[in-house]
Amino acid sequence: MFTSGQTLHQRYALQRLLSRRPGRQTWLALDLEAGRADTESVVIKLLGFSPEVEWQDLKLFQREARVLQQVSHSRIPEYRDSFTLRNGLTWWGLVATYIEGISLEDLLHRGKRFTPKAIYQLAAQVLRILIALHELSPPVLHRDIKPSNLIVSAQGRVFLVDFGSVQDRASRDGGTFTVVGTYGYTPLEQFGGRTIPASDLYALGATLIQVLTGVPPAELPQQDFRIQFRDRVSLNPAFLSWLEGMTHPSPEKRFATAREALRALQLSQRSASPVLGTAAPPAPRIQVQPTAAQLDIEIAQRWEGGWTDALLVAGTLLLPILGIFPLGGILIAGALSRFDLGGLGIGLLLWVLGALLGAVGMSLCRGNFTASHIRVTAEKVKVRYRLFGIPYWQWRRPTAAIKQLMLVPIGIKHHELQAQLTTPMQNRPSKHPTLGINLSETECQWLIQTLYDWLDRH
Predict the structure, then answer these.
(1) Is residue 452 predicted with pLDDT exceeding 80?
(2) Other CB atoms closer than 10 Å to residue 58's CB: what's the count?
(3) How far is CA 361 from CA 127, 354, 394, 443, in A?
(4) What is Dmax (Cα atoms) for the chain?
(5) How far apart are CA 282 and CA 440, in angstroms?
(6) What CA–CA distance (Å, rounded) separates 239 from 394?
(7) 297, β-bridge pairs
(8) If you average pLDDT over residues 346-369, what whole number do you get?
(9) Residue-wise over 69-105: b if at least 16 C-beta within 10 A, else e?
(10) What is the helix (H) or strand (E) element at residue 132, kind and residue range?
(11) CB–CB of 440/276 below 8 Å?
């Protein structure tokens, strides 16, 4: 029997018993390793070899240690150590970093209720963890996602813990299997010994349904093995359909991968906005002409009004004059001095100054008077810029290469958003085109949905 204050393996000082089951104990401890500047909290899982423990339990325990050694992720406990010791029985110990926070199960027991936005963020964070696990080689399947295995930190970060049921592809391909999981969160195929990435998605979906309804999924009614929960929640239809897709009893009708599920979740949230999904543009200056072959979006020039814009207009109108005078200066100086180098140099200097003033003027006026034209086809996306109707720059990319592009705000100018096409992992968005500088937030959101809708259908 272990007690608080006892030191295990000459290194770990037991602090508090976290859980106990027959033949199993989990302790919060301090790592007293020599040479450390201070102690560090760790979790020690102990498995005692006794008649209450089967060989399969030891197999899973050892597999958990092996997988944690191989996995490195900021939202998963970090493997620290493993050992065996004698204390009446032979005990196997597994040491991992302690995740400070409260389990989702405890939060629900305390009456915590989550907003739709918080539930979306919870789902997205867990899906990103699953993407990292499922895309390892071999893939790592958790097989026991449920509220007690999700820890929420004070900052709102979500951690996935307890890999006691974990399975990698190599172990799954053997001739035997161990049925693991928790009733209500475990899909039918997993009880039959078949576990795939979509099995973890089902468990996550069932967990989210419990967060939404406050009722464990095993206690909710079922029809044709499908959890019935729509009458207990009030959410946008797209998110409800996403949850039903996550928890479909047939794995072939669920999302195939966590990445696919995350993408669908993001789209469901965009359609939740009262602005997004509207058929008409939110402003008359945006004109859309969708056809089966292409999507054309025209962002018209806009007049802001005010003395600052009046100065910009005045400066822009002077640009042609500033361009004429340097030309005249070159000719006059050349004629008076019979094209000596001094006169020619003065003329060229005037021309350079005029060109610089023109560049500055165009830059200042671009926010108010640049019209963008976006054309999307099955083969390519093309963005053209015009100043007073005159094209001056063009950007093209193959449509197949930008299916994952996103329209995101990149800054604030004149109290409004600038939107830019960029990839989700791109750290230098300046390499991608800005679409309609000074878009309002409503216009920016509407453009996002319009582009996504057309791309998703093609």
Answers:
(1) no
(2) 13
(3) 48, 10, 20, 26
(4) 112
(5) 10
(6) 37
(7) 288, 374
(8) 57
(9) eebeeebbbbbbbbbeeeeeeebbbbbbbbbebebbb
(10) helix 116-134
(11) no
Q: What share of the chain is helix, strand, coil (3-state, %, to 5)?
A: 40, 25, 35
Residue 428, CA distances (Å) to 276, 401, 447 in order? 27, 17, 21
Q: Mean pLDDT throughout 92-103?
A: 93
CB atoms within 10 A of CB 448: 19
Residues 6+ apart with CB under 8 A from 68: 76, 77, 78, 79, 94, 96, 163
Q: What is the 3-state secondary structure (H, E, C) of 182-222?
A: CCCCCCHHHHCCCCCHHHHHHHHHHHHHHHHHCCCHHHCCE
User: Within a 10 A sphere around the Cβ of 154, how many other Cβ atoms?
Assistant: 8
Cα angle at 43 between 15 and 2, to 5 degrees?
50
Structure tokens at 317: 């109108």
Backbone angles phi, psi at 169, to 5 degrees: -60, -35
Nearest to residue 309, comparing CAs of 414, 391, 386? 414
Q: Do 437 and 390 touch, CB atoms closer than 8 A?
A: no
- Distance, CA of 45 to CA of 32 (rounded, Å): 17
Residue 121 phi/psi, 5-degree rounding, is -65, -40
- Nearest-angstrom CA–CA distance, 423 and 433: 12
What φ, ψ does residue 64 adopt, rounded to 5°? -60, -45
Residues whose CB is less than 8 angstroms from the CB of residue 201 and which lie 6 or more positions away in sequence, other chains included: 130, 246, 254, 255, 258, 261
Of 423, 422, 417, which is closest to residue 446 (Cα–Cα)?
417
* Beta-strand relationship, 140-141 and 102-103: unpaired
Q: Report the length, in residues, of the chain.
A: 458
Taking the C-alpha atoms of residue 380 and residue 108, their distance in angstroms, rounded to an integer, is 48
pLDDT band at 270 (very low <50, low <70, confident <90, very high): low
| Tokens 């900021």 -> residue | 74
How deeply is 252 buried, as exposed, middle or buried, from its count of CB atoms within 10 A (0-12, 13-18, 19+)? exposed
In this predicted model, what pLDDT tens digit does every residue of 223-237 receive, in sequence order? Answer: 888 999 988 887 777
Instruction: Provide the 10 A C-beta neighbour count for residue 412.
Output: 10
Asked if 41 and 19 count as a contact pair (C-beta separation under 8 A), the reply is no
Distance from the first to the final alpha carbon of the chain: 64
Tokens at 407, concatenated: 């329209």
The span from the CA of 117 to the CA of 115, in Å, is 5
Q: How far apart (Å, rounded) are the C-alpha atoms in residues 46 and 340?
A: 95
pLDDT of 273? 45
